[in-house]
Amino acid sequence: MDMFGTVQLKAPRERLWHAFHDSSLIKQCIPGCESFEWTEEDRCVATAAIAVGPIAATFKGELQLFDVEPPVTCTISGEANGGVKGFVMGVAKVRLDESPEGTELSYFAEARFCRRLTKFGSSRVDATAKELAARFFDSLCENVEVEVRKHLFSSPSSSRG
User: How is residue 83 annotated by DSSP?
Assistant: First the structure.
């Protein structure tokens, strides 16, 4: 399965780059995320409870960053295991470009689902993956933009006297 898209954020590119390395923020953004922790600069472990149709499973996995060019681009590769329910493997290329509104995030991801998850057919699995990606990006936009607004209003230069 392939997914791609572009998301516009009202936040500076540097702030968005740093957000990807903020474990607590990313945990808030991943649907069903129970834990998310960077174990090294380029590796993290995560656990998330996800349902595809009537099959619900807790997936535990590891992600690794490759081809990192801060604050512009990186490739994310990972695998998550849901036990007898199945596992997923994937790779995503993420790019952050400055835009008049803030930052344009573009991504291309490839994922492969195995075992019981595939019995529902690719259309249901694809729809679930796209829904989870949309929820992640919506939450990321909201959290980063709220943080940027808080920072702007709390900075000494924003007070009027």
Answer: G
H helix intervals, the chain = 13-19, 23-29, 122-154
Q: How many Å apart are CA 60 and CA 87, to the nearest integer? A: 9
160, part of any domain: no
Domain assignment of residue 96, given as a range:
2-148
Any domain includes 103: yes
Coil, strand or helix: which one is 54?
coil
Whole-prediction pTM: 0.84
Q: For 79-137, write each residue's pLDDT tens digit.
A: 999 888 888 899 999 999 999 989 999 999 998 877 666 666 677 778 888 888 889 98
- In this structure, is the dihedral angle defined by the CA atoms of residues 37, 43, 45 and 48, taken in order, positive or negative? positive
